Every structure is written in C-alpha cells, then in structure tokens.
Fold:
Amino acid sequence: MNTKNKYSPIGIFDSGYGGLTVLKEIVKKLPQYDYLYLGDNARAPYGSRSFETVYEYTLQCVNYLFNQGCHLVILACNTASAKALRTIQQKNLPLIAPNKRVLGVIRPTTELIGNFTKTNCVGVLGTAGTISSGSYLVEIEKFFPNVNVYQQACPMWVPLIENNELDSVGADYFIKKYVGNLMQQQPTIDAIILGCTHYPIIEQKIKQYLPEHVKLLSQGTIVASSLNDYLQRHSQLEKNCSKKGLIQFCTTDLPQVFDKAASIFFDTEIKSKRVEL
Ligand code: DGL
Structure:
C-alpha cells in the first residue's frame, strides 16, 4: 500500500491540558511530523479514578486516535501510563492493531533520574493514582537500584489547573503543603520528578517552596528525546508517520474553553474540535 500521502499523525493523549506540556517539547524537537492531540477534558481528572476506569477511558481514547489514522500514540499522562499502558500493550494491541504502538511517559523519565541525584534520594510528585500504582518505585528500582525514592500524591493540583484556579490563595496553600510533605520525608532529596504532565504548568510556584539546589525534572524534553530515539530505531513505524508539520487538537469537552488554555501554551490561536468517544 502506498502510505506516502496518507494522513497518519502521531497521537498525543492526556486526560486534559497536561499533555500539551509534552506536545510542545515534542514539536520543538520533531517539527516535521503531524500531530493529533486528544484531551479527555470532559472526564478529567483521571488521578483519583480506579484502575478499571482509567484503563477503559484510555483505551477509548487510543482507539479514537487509531481510527483517525495514528500508527503511534503517546500517553502523555502518567496516570494513564501507570494504570493502562501495560494492559493496552500486552492485551489489546495484539488483537486490535498489531502494527501500531502505544508508548508512555514513565519509563523515559525513570531511565534518566539516577543521573540527576548526588544524594541518591529522589522525590516523585504525582496524582493519587500514579503514586498508589507504585510504578515509579518499580521502574526506578530497575534502572537505579541504589536510588531511594520518596513519593507524594498531590490530588488537588490537577483540579486547580483544569479549573483555572492557579492564582487563588488555595492554590498556593496546596502547592506549599504537598512540596513540604515530600521534603519532610527526606530533606536530602536533591532531584524531583514532576510525575504528572500538568505540573510543569506550576513549576515556578513549586520552585518557590524548594531549596535552590533541588532539581525539578519535567517530562516534556525527556519524552521528546526518547521519541526521537524510538523513531530512529523503528524505521517502518517512522515511515508510516505523515510529515506535513500539521498540529490538530481534539477535546471531549467545550472547544472554546480548551482553545483558550491551549493557546497560552502554543502562543498561537488554536481551534480544537469536539469529539465523541
Ligand atoms: N496529566 C495527567 C498525568 O500526567 C493528569 C492526570 C489526571 O487527570 O489527574 O497524570
């Protein structure tokens, strides 16, 4: 089959706006590809939902992106990566799309974290779902068995971001609280993973409550480099990805609300489409 002119964007999925922090870095690194972003804003946040629900929602979103022509989908969401990725890769893909691929954001981050710590004490900030899944503990142990990992769930952060409440007193209260809880567990933590793709949006606020030497790791640039390597190693899949530099956005909620938030990220006007899953 001639795949030359076929629209086959790289699908980027998140429960809401968080994946835009990843998409932005991916586009910077790999501007030649087409991208289709899907935010399941109508059902965000995913962070406090059960394994079954996150899996069911994520699979619906992946199927939607496959139906739009994507051969490769990135779950730019830690909660979905923690709770749904493995089952989708092992159980669903062989049946529904054996030649397509779904990748997550946890592994690329854990492969690197050991290089950023001198004290061998690292922190992970994430949604309640990501933290309780233990995915970061398991993955970091594989690559850096000497690194001690301290985790803190931040259940209020995604709702504050999705509801545009960042300038409220409440937002500062919850940022200080969760950062403080993490550092209290182990004051020698010197590197922290922002283990939720929404959190780079509040990176500057998080920094206010941390000693200056503590390194904060956002996933955007890490995932972008990892995707670049992946595409180089998987030439058939790479050939299937169309390359016109088009970026399109879909949301399961109100497009005008999505557009306002997304335009801030991309410094350009965004016109998303509402989709039914
Ligand atoms: N950006 C998602 C993540 O990385 C947020 C999950 C949520 O919707 O709570 O986990």
User: Anything to note?
Assistant: The mean pLDDT is 95. Strands lie at 10-14, 35-39, 72-75, 101-103, 121-126, 148-153, 191-194, 215-217, 247-251, 273-274. Residues 71 and 100 are 5 Å apart (CA to CA).
